[in-house]
Amino acid sequence: MDWSALNLSLKLAACTVLILLPLGIWAGHALAAQQFRGKAWVEALLALPLVLPPTVLGYYLMVAMGGASPIGQFYESWIGRPLVFSFEGLLVASVIFNIPFAIQPMQRGFEAIAPEVRDAAACCGLTRWRTLWRIELPLAWPGILSAVVLTFAHTLGEFGVVLMVGGNIPGETKTIAIAIYDRVQAFDTAGAGLMSAVLLLISLVAIGAAYFTTSRTRTRRHG
Amino acid sequence: MAEPGIRIRLQQSGPIPLQAELGCAPGEILALVGPSGSGKTTILRAIAGLLRVRHGAIHCNGDCWFDDQRQIFTETRQRRVGYVFQNYALFPHLSALHNVMEAMLELPVAERERRARDVLARVRLAGLEDRVPAALSGGQQQRVAVARALAREPQVLLLDEPFSAVDRATRQRLYRELAELRRELAMPVILVTHDLDEAMMLADRMCVLHQGRTLQSGDPYAVMTRPDTVEVAQLVGLRNVFRAGVVAHDAERGVTIIEWRRHRLEARLQPDFKVGLQVTWAIPQGHIVLHRRDRPSRGERENPVSGVVTEYLALGENVALTVAVNGPGRPPLFMTVPAHTARRNGIVQGVEIGVSLLAEGIHLMPADESRTPAKPV
Prior knowledge:
The complex is a heterodimer of chains A (223) and B (377).
Chain A: H1 3-33, H2 39-51, H3 54-65, H4 70-79, H5 87-97, H6 99-111, H7 115-123, H8 128-157, H9 160-166, H10 176-185, H11 189-222
Helix pairs in contact in A: 1-5, 1-6, 1-8, 1-10, 2-6, 3-9, 5-9, 6-8, 7-8, 8-11, 10-11
Chain B: E1 6-12, E2 18-24, E3 29-33, H1 40-48, E4 55-60, E5 63-67, E6 72-73, E7 81-84, H2 96-101, H3 109-122, H4 138-151, E8 156-160, H5 168-181, E9 189-193, H6 196-202, E10 205-210, E11 213-218, H7 220-225, H8 230-235, E12 241-250, E13 255-260, E14 263-268, E15 278-282, E16 288-290, E17 304-315, E18 318-325, E19 333-338, H9 339-344, E20 352-357, E21 363-366
Parallel strand pairs in B: 3-9, 3-10, 7-8, 8-9
Antiparallel strand pairs in B: 1-2, 1-4, 4-5, 5-6, 10-11, 12-13, 12-15, 13-14, 15-21, 16-20, 17-18, 17-20, 18-19
Helix pairs in contact in B: 3-4
């Protein structure tokens, strides 16, 4: 069992969720509540990581963050080490790769709120912040929770992008999915099996807890 | 000096055409009636500031909420409106108490709860404060919506078809409750409904809307029995609309005489219509009185007219009759009589009956052929 790989995967998943949670709430709310020109294109762009093969996305991210790119050069001159093949680079890739998993459920959650409920909040004199905090976030909660769980579980299991952008550096970019692949390559099926089982269990518990919580919320709200 | 009540003037050509002008005094209930798509809810949303209309002005108790020329537009949250939405739009995750408390944020927390409980008790919801909307009946949800709308001590109360989502028995009870509650309300109340009976029952004044235009405002009974135009007559469900010529005015007897299909009919005195003028006239069904068939008319009754029953439609306790006067092919007379009266008089399809058209109910309007699809004669 490669504990450092598991630890790294959990850290990567937690950081990705922490970054995407406020970003997803903002974007999901804006996409649900506002109509603007080019909205369909914005939505299509945000959904792109869903359909692109992870290796293709990983390749573009590697090129975009590599030492030859302005982003990579800026990062290296600022921090003193390259962005690719580092945990930070992996985190950037993970955030981009998880955008649809975070934003789409949240957007659906906000869209499910009847427009009259927002109107009623305005008629009650609630400010935009109070409406978001007291009315919209609690009502969109099942969507937000789904987004968090999907992002977390998806990051744990991601392979292609991680390999392209992060490589296989123990303690830095070697996640549990890479470690499992390593074990299989080394004919250590017992080790691979154990790690796979742990990954399966963590994902199952996370998704199960999310389903349980949202179904309880729904029962309470709809009688 | 600030003018009490609310005054509204709205005008735009699209996307929803509007040409509306109305006012409502404090303590008054104004019903906005009209068919679906006539702009009733749009006007309510414009008053609340949920919709910005191109041109016009809205003044409430001296405050200007909207004036396109002065570029004034007060945000909804600053307008102090109480709005009861058609489906109530309660906050589904909050209890009845917290739904109401959300509308009282200007008060300190402790005061908020005490006041919210008071308002809920006022709408007979004491004891149900902790229930979420899904655990309340339709009628109870409507009361929470009313309590929430009143909680903010609004300057105007807007009710958007508040009785449409409940069953008939509950609706009757809620009518009574609103009638009782209104005695305590000091603000203008604007009620949107497509139900004319509801408007008659609850409102002090009624405003008829069609395609975003306010056509006529006034006492509900007056609007429904004395419409200004044929268009309003059709919108308020007056089916007996015909054409006639003005023959004479007799101020002494208080009557105007018109000629309709060889009948000389006496109408309530309406001297604005000159002798010789072609007019449209209408009579509400309640002003048509059936003659007893076993005691034939001696001609002394008011405006006696006879005709053949061409359609007999039993509608529960009443019967709707269609009567051809002076032969078929011309717009018939529509009337409703109690089923037992129809039975006792042996009325069936094909029999000839006599009726009186009560002079008080005969209302003259300018002839308007363009707005008269049935070409009444």
